[in-house]
Amino acid sequence: MSSVIEYLVAFLIVLGGAFALIGSWGLARLPSLMTRLHGPTKATTLGIGACLIASMIYFPTRGEPFSAHELLIALFLFITAPISANMVAKAYIHRRYNRCSAPEDVHTLLPPPPGAGADWATFGSEPEQGAIKGTVMDGGVGKAQDQGPD
Amino acid sequence: MIEIALDIALGCVALAMLLNLWSLLKGPTAPDRILALDTMIINAIALFVLFGVMENTRVFFEAALLMAMVGFVGTVAYTKFLLRGDIVE
């Protein structure tokens, strides 16, 4: 194996391990769940991508044929990581939202909504129940009836 | 060269899994714990891949792919259960 490729593989392996560690450190260290989501979804996924690229370069230099297994794993992880992060954030927001007993609780318990006059998109797909949801959604009711649950 | 890199990376990933375990035990709410478990699965996949490079074998890639799939389905099932109180409606 030429030394350039060896250095490249070693560098990618160390990079992958370091990014995995940084992501988990962020998960353990950051204060709330919405900030904690950043670590695993970005840094750790990038780290495992670096490890997979390293192994994809490493095995053909050993005389073994090139295989697409690493690409398959990387593709699968890169597709599923944002989806699972979205689901976790959704579960968190809905649990906090169900704990609101007065309309002003919405501003203290929930993270600030994405824009002025817009609510979190996930509340638009909920069927209307109770008095608080009517005050929070402000026009999301029509969308809820069109889409139905999920 | 690669052996030293593998030692460093395996140490990093092991430390990362310990941190995940800590945040799994600490995490104040259920979504925190789900996130910690999901990260732990991803770190386990990294461990599999690095171990495969270390042992110079490709057998572990099937295991890694399987863990990626099962981990994703598990995370979605947990969050679905928290959201709806039911997994398959």
From TrEMBL, chain A:
Record's keyword terms, sorted: Membrane, Transmembrane, Transmembrane helix
Molecular functions (GO terms): sodium:proton antiporter activity
Annotated transmembrane regions: 6-28, 40-59, 71-89
Pfam families: PhaG_MnhG_YufB
InterPro entries listed in its UniProt record: PhaG_MnhG_YufB (IPR005133)
The keyword Transmembrane helix appears for this protein: yes
PANTHER family assigned to the protein according to its UniProt record, in alphabetical order: ANTIPORTER SUBUNIT MNHG2-RELATED
Entries under NCBIfam families matching the protein: CPA3_mnhG_phaG, PRK12674.1-5
Protein name, as recorded: Na+/H+ antiporter subunit G
